[in-house]
C-alpha cells in the first residue's frame, strides 16, 4: 500500500465490490481486453499518426519494459507534463502496467507548481515535451533536476538534448513476465483544483477510477463508434476520465487528440476525423459558439458537447443545439471524485438550468449548513460527498485532510449547491477561497502569499470579479507601502516566481484599507462587490 494514501474503510470497500462498482480490474487489463476484442480498430489519432488498439497495447508493453529498465518500479511516482499527444497514452498505460504512478501536471504549470509537485510526490522521473506553444520544457526540466533530488530521469518527447528520449522506450522487448498491480493500488495522482493553499494530489485507484470511467461512459452514451476529441488538457480529470480519453477507450471508440482547443484547430479535426463528442469549459463553449458563425468546416458529425468545470450560463446552454447542432450535457465534476451529469434525453429545463445528478446510486451526497447539519431540499448549502469513486483523503496531507473531510469520511467540496426535488444539483457558488476562472482554479491563498513578497505591497486580498465570458476574473486589492505597484509589475513578479499563466492577475486596484467582517477578517464579499461596481481605470 502506498504510504500517504487514505484507503476506504474495509466495510465500504466490501460493499463497493459486492455491488459491482469495483470489479477487480486494472487500467492496464482494461486496455488489454479491448485490444484482444478489437485489435484492428483505431484507438488513437494524433496528427498524421493513427494507432490501432493492438498497436497502443503493444507500445505500452514495450514502454513498460523500457521504464522498468530505467529502474522505475511499482509504487514509484513519475511526474507527467505532456501536451495532448499519443505518447501520453502509451506512457500512462506503460506506467499502469508496472504499477508506477503517473502524477498528472498541466502543461500550463511552471517551476513553482512543478517543483512543489515533484517534491510532494518524490517523483523519480519527469516527462515533458521539448517545446510546446513556444515554451521550452527542457529549461524547466533543468531547474527541476537541480532543485529536486528525487528526480533520476528526465524523459523528453521530441528533441531530448542532454536528456533521455521518450522514443527510446520503444526499443525494448516487452517483459515476458509482468507483475500486475493490485486493482486496489493507487493508479494515478490527479491534481486538485479546489483546495486552499498549495496544490494537493488526489490518489485514484484502478478500481475506483475504472468505476468513474465506466459510469461516466454510460452517462455520456459512449460506444464503439464514439470518436472523442480531447480538446482540454488530457491531464485534467474531465478530459481524461469523465469519460474523456480513457472512457472512450473503455467503450472501444477512437480518441482524437487536439493540441489546442481553438476553433481553428478543433473544427478542422472535427471535420477530418468525424468527431462525435468532446468536452469544454464554459469560456470555450462561448468561443466555439461565436466561431461557428464564420466557420467553413462541416461539424455535422458532432453529437455531444459536454460542458463543465465552471457554471455554464443558461443562455449559453440554450444556444448549443441551434448553433452547433449537437446535444449538450452539463457535467459538474471534481478530481476528488463525485460526478454529476445531465441526461442526454432530459428536458431543456434540466439541461439548461442544472448541473446534473450524481452518476452512481451509491454516491452519498448531503447538503449542509455551516454546522454540518442537513438543509431542506431546495435550500442552499455546502455539498459533502462520499461514494465508490470519491477519495477519503488527499495524498500525504494528514493535517489538511482533517479539515477537508468529515469524521465520517465525507469530502467537504466547498461548493454551495441547491438540490431540486428530482435530485438535480444547481451550483450557486463556493465557500472555499478559490477563484474559478472559467474552469481554471486559482488558489487565492497561494497567490496572495506570492504577492505579499512584493516590496511595494503592505497587504493584499485577491478577489473574484464576476465576468460574462469567464464567470470570474481575478483582481488583487492592494494596500501599498508607499508608491502603488502597477498590474504589469505585479504580473512580472508572479512570472518571475514561475506560476502558471492562468494564475496571473486580470486586474489590480489600490485601496487605503479593506472592509472587515464582524470578526475582523477581510470581508471579501463586500470587497468584490465594491470592485465590481467600480468602472475600470
Ligand atoms: C459549476 N462548477 C463546477 C460545473 C466543476 C468534470 C467536469 C469538471 C471537473 C473539474 C471535473 C462545475 N458548474 N459544471 O473534474 O470530471 C467546480 C466546482 C468543483 C470544482 C472541481 C470533471 N464543474 N465545477 O472542474 O477538480 O467548484 O474538476 O468542486 O478541476 O470545479 O474542479 P476540478
From TrEMBL:
<protein>
    <submittedName>
        <fullName>AMP-binding protein</fullName>
    </submittedName>
</protein>
<dbReference type="InterPro" id="IPR025110">
    <property type="entry name" value="AMP-bd_C"/>
</dbReference>
<dbReference type="InterPro" id="IPR045851">
    <property type="entry name" value="AMP-bd_C_sf"/>
</dbReference>
<feature type="domain" description="AMP-binding enzyme C-terminal">
    <location>
        <begin position="446"/>
        <end position="521"/>
    </location>
</feature>
<dbReference type="Pfam" id="PF13193">
    <property type="entry name" value="AMP-binding_C"/>
</dbReference>
<dbReference type="Pfam" id="PF00501">
    <property type="entry name" value="AMP-binding"/>
</dbReference>
<dbReference type="InterPro" id="IPR020845">
    <property type="entry name" value="AMP-binding_CS"/>
</dbReference>
<dbReference type="InterPro" id="IPR050237">
    <property type="entry name" value="ATP-dep_AMP-bd_enzyme"/>
</dbReference>
<dbReference type="InterPro" id="IPR000873">
    <property type="entry name" value="AMP-dep_synth/lig_dom"/>
</dbReference>
<feature type="domain" description="AMP-dependent synthetase/ligase">
    <location>
        <begin position="32"/>
        <end position="395"/>
    </location>
</feature>
